[in-house]
Amino acid sequence: MNADLMVYILLVRRLEERFGSVRQQNRWLSRFEMRTRNSGETVAALGDDLRQIDDSLAQEVLALNQLYKSIPIEMKCRCEDRECKTVADAVDIIERYEALLGEWCKLRTSMTPATIFFEPFSQCIVQGCLNAWAMSYLFNFTGSVVFLVHCLVWFLLDYILIRVIEGGPLPFSKFEFLVGWIINEVTYPGVILRSHFDPKIVWRNHQFKLKWGGTVEELHSKQTV
Predict the structure, then answer these.
(1) Are 132 and 144 in contact (CB under 8 A)?
(2) pLDDT tens for residues 60-81?
(3) What is the pTM of this model?
(4) 44 vs 50, 71, 91, 99, 207, CA distance in Å?
(5) In sequence order, which ranges of 69-142 are alpha helices (DSSP H)?
(6) Residues 130-184: pLDDT tens digits?
(7) Is residue 209 classed as helix, strand or coil in its secondary structure?
(8) Which residues of 57-77 are buried (b: 16+ CB within 10 A; e: fewer)?
(9) Name one GO biological process term (predicted).
């Protein structure tokens, strides 16, 4: 029997002992699984809510699995590689990863200011909307169909690309990749916007202000006695 399946069966048995009835258990599980990441919500806030729902080691595992449903695939793989056992561990890794993405966007923006204007147009959703409008205006095509076909082709090309890069079986299913891909495409514009409006970056417990051209100035915090 699969080790993950055995662990899940043991968790279900523990929950049955705790709740006393299958109906009460299912009611709790449905409430637990309905908690997904909202638009603009930080991973830390989602993790805090999930931890407030669970109160045992068995439920901690379920909380971690529920958290994985609301993050991109690459973040989930990163957490699994670090062998995260708790939601707090996963949130710490995810926040560091998201901060690194934001700082990289800030650096690229300061060195090549043209990305402020052109980068949003390189995203799947933005290009899909523009293509749908253009095809509808020029050829009287149905815009929604054009948009869906555009997203499907983009998704398939991304999947082929990651298969080529991995050079073998992927450590996740096609459905997990689809969910992660959608979350990435929807949330990445937020990363770009944060990088444009916040010039501060953090490196080895020091804060720096990023200037145009890629130069930085260290920010010294005021010390109080």
Answers:
(1) yes
(2) 666 777 777 766 676 777 677 7
(3) 0.48
(4) 10, 12, 6, 13, 21
(5) 73-81, 87-111, 115-118, 124-139
(6) 999 999 999 999 999 999 999 999 999 999 988 888 887 887 788 888 988 898 8
(7) strand
(8) ebbbbbbbebbbebbbbebbb
(9) glucosylceramide biosynthetic process
